[in-house]
From TrEMBL:
This is glucose-6-phosphate 1-epimerase. Its EC number is 5.1.3.15. GO terms for biological process: carbohydrate metabolic process. InterPro entries: Aldose_1/G6P_1-epimerase, G6P_1-epimerase, Gal_mutarotase_sf_dom, GH-type_carb-bd. It comes from the Eukaryota. Keywords: Isomerase. GO terms for molecular function: carbohydrate binding; glucose-6-phosphate 1-epimerase activity. Substrate binds at R66, Q84, R89. It is an enzyme of class 5 (isomerase). It catalyses: alpha-D-glucose 6-phosphate = beta-D-glucose 6-phosphate. The active site is at H167, E271. The gene is LOC111301747.
Length: 314
């Protein structure tokens, strides 16, 4: 089964957890675990890993994998009565062999469709019936696309409400050499200050301490510039108005069991999300949330790059 040319391959990952490997013809690849519907790897054409996964990540039932792209559903963080970040990230998803068609053409060769439905146990925790379809696709240039389609399948006529995030951990060379552009001057809720609302200053965001902020109603494009790696990540998102920026820094890193003490230096979470205005679906209604990630070489040195060009370029 392990031919370089197979665009989609089912394989065993850590602890024999099942994973799907996507390969694009020019050499980029991605890996998706059925555990959590969780993308754990995204590599460019040169085989360089673009996502951060902790060396201490636990691949255990009922436990989210530390790194990659956990899916937060039906609750972001502790914004509600459910477990932190909801349960979708630690449930076992299935391969969706016959997903409903997409109106737009998103069918690159290297893609996989997964589905999550609630178990009887899940319904005791969150008393709703739904179908959560996730498509993970690698574009021809190595872009990574995730599309979520969540449908209310309640038969009791009841709507449900949820919050959501793609909790993406980007791999960065050194957090103190990184800046985020596209969130300047926006309002945010600061998770480190009782979710109080503040307004960001005019400058690009840089990192010198713990950060845990929910930026509200952001542009659809956000850029992460890694000065040392000379790489820029561009996040494009649809249906996901908010963006969380998280780095635990040194003290909190030590308190997270499945995270190395110094690993905060090499990761940054920028999470396309719908948090401030929760999504409500009536029975039969469907919501979509899309995130597309690309990594481009940047010849950035201080003051040289025009942020507008990064954000406005296609
Ligand atoms: O440790 P967890 O549950 O994966 O969460 C990690 C972080 O995830 C971020 O999205 C939250 O804003 C943080 O508050 C949280 O600490």
């Amino acid at each position: 089964m392990s031919s370089e040319r197979v665009p989609v391959e089912l394989s065993k990952g850590v602890n024999s957890f099942e994973k799907i490997i996507l390969r694009e013809i020019r050499g980029s690849s991605a890996e998706v675990y059925l555990h959590g519907g969780h993308v754990t790897s995204w590599k460019n054409e040169n085989g360089e890993e673009l996502l951060f996964v902790s060396s201490k990540a636990l691949f255990k039932p009922q436990k989210a994998i530390r790194g990659g792209i956990p899916i937060c559903f039906p609750q972001f963080s502790n914004h509600g009565p459910l477990e932190q970040h909801g349960f979708a990230r630690n449930r076992i998803w299935s391969i969706d062999t016959d997903p409903p068609a997409f109106p737009t053409n998103s069918s690159s060769k290297a893609h996989i469709d997964l589905i999550l439905r609630p178990s009887e146990e899940d319904i005791k925790i969150w008393p709703h019936s739904y179908e959560f379809r996730l498509r993970v696709a690698l574009g021809p240039g190595g872009d990574l696309m995730l599309i979520s389609r969540i449908r209310n399948t309640n038969t009791d006529g009841k709507p449900f409400t949820f919050t959501f995030a793609y909790h993406t951990y980007f791999s960065v060379s050194d957090i103190s050499e990184v800046r985020v552009e596209g969130l300047e001057t926006l309002d945010y809720l600061d998770n480190l200050q009782n979710k109080e609302r503040f307004t960001e200053q005019g400058d690009a965001i840089t990192f010198e301490t713990e950060v845990d902020k929910i930026y509200l109603s952001t542009p659809t494009k956000i850029a992460i510039l890694d000065h040392e790696k000379k790489r820029t990540f561009v996040i494009r998102k649809d249906g996901l108005p908010d963006a969380v920026v998280w780095n635990p820094w040194d003290k909190k890193a030590k308190a997270i069991v499945d995270f190395g003490d110094d690993e905060y230096k090499h990761m940054l979470c920028v999470e396309a999300a719908a948090i401030e205005k929760p999504i409500t679906l009536k029975p039969g209604e469907e919501w979509r949330g899309r995130q597309e990630l690309s990594a481009v070489a940047s010849s950035y040195c201080s003051g040289q790059l025009d942020p507008q060009r990064v954000l406005q370029g296609s």
